[in-house]
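U., I forgot to send this yesterday:
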Amino acid sequence: YIMITDIILAGGILPMGIMTILLIALFLAFWKARRCVKYIGFAALAAAVLLSLLDWIPAIGAIIEANGEVASTVIWAGLRHCLVLLAYGLIIYLVSLVFRLILKLRK
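Result:
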């Protein structure tokens, strides 16, 4: 049983906070600025990929400095961190696709 706070902490507070702001913006756009739904979904996906890559750059540098002698649990924890962030970005993008479909069906 995993709590949502554990998932947010696993993804990192700052990156997940940015993604949550984009999720809130998506709901607000669906309510008021319907033309922005598509772009906010793309922004969430791009932000998730970019933030994941930015998280991996120092991790790879630390592995290189340690001459590759890093415990596998440390590497898997870093991978989990990045995958949680990517999954959250994909979920936000999928929500934007559903919103766009709803908007098209209403026309």
